[in-house]
Amino acid sequence: PRGQRRVRVCVQSACTGRLLRAGLDPYTHGVAWLPGWFQLGVDPAWADTPTPYGPLFLAVQSAVVGVTGDAPWWSMVLFRLLCLLATGLMLMAIRELAAMHGIEPQAAVWLAALNPVTLMHLVLAAHNDALMIAAMCWAFVFSLRGQKPAAVLAIAAAIAIKPIAVVALPFVVLGWLPRSSTLLRRILSLLAATVGSAILIFAGGKLLGVGLGWISALTTPGAVRTLL
């Protein structure tokens, strides 16, 4: 049933997109509010839980449903294609980062591509971690190139996909600062990047009509007890 679980993950994401398109807030409503959610294959354990993902991934989920409608199989196919694309972008960023640090780029790419987590979680499971990690990796590339606006935009996108990406924000900021930077400059740069990211994420949430509801939904992963 690993294959069945992968289908259920994609169906869960599609149903979250259906919630948004139906005018319901996925941060306050579970997929059980939709008619036919069980027949579509959603795991009942997650039927009443709000989504823990950021507003950018909600927009992706809504777009997928807009293309595939209520067809869970095609939703799975499209989600997997998106994750494959994101994995490719991640590997491109890793190649850049390796070259910047004097590491053999081909070796770095193959280590990342053949990593069991990459193969089983990002590719086979078609998980949105692929989108988040790709955005995080490019945030570091832009940061080391000194492209500050692009770096902030990329890390804000990662956070807006999965809020846990916020742990990378301070390191992205440190990437564009000279090693001789004072503590005050580092703090001010971090504050500026944090404010910029927050504005971008808040604006995205407002456009979707969900505001900052993702903050209250951060406890969702711990709401259902599983073997993991």
Brief synopsis:
The chain is mostly helical.
How much strand content do the residues show? under 5%
Order of helices and strands: HHHHHHHHHHH
Kindly, what is the distance between the CA atoms of the first and last residues, rounded to a whole number of angstroms? 16 Å
Biggest β-sheet description: none
Name the structural class: mainly alpha
- Determine Rg (CA atoms, Å): 18 Å
* Number of DSSP strand runs: 0
Extract low-pLDDT stretches: none
Specify the number of helices. 11
Q: Fraction of residues in helices?
A: 55-70%
Q: Based on CA inertia axes, which overall geometry fits?
A: globular
Mean pLDDT comes to 81
Please describe what this structure looks like.
The chain has 228 residues and is mainly alpha-helical. It is built from eleven helices and no strands. The protein has helices at residues 2-21, 37-40, 55-68, 72-100, 105-113, 116-124, 129-145, 148-161, 169-176, 183-208, 213-216. It is globular. The relative contact order is 0.13.
Fill in the keyword field for this structure.
228 residues, mainly alpha, 11 helices, globular
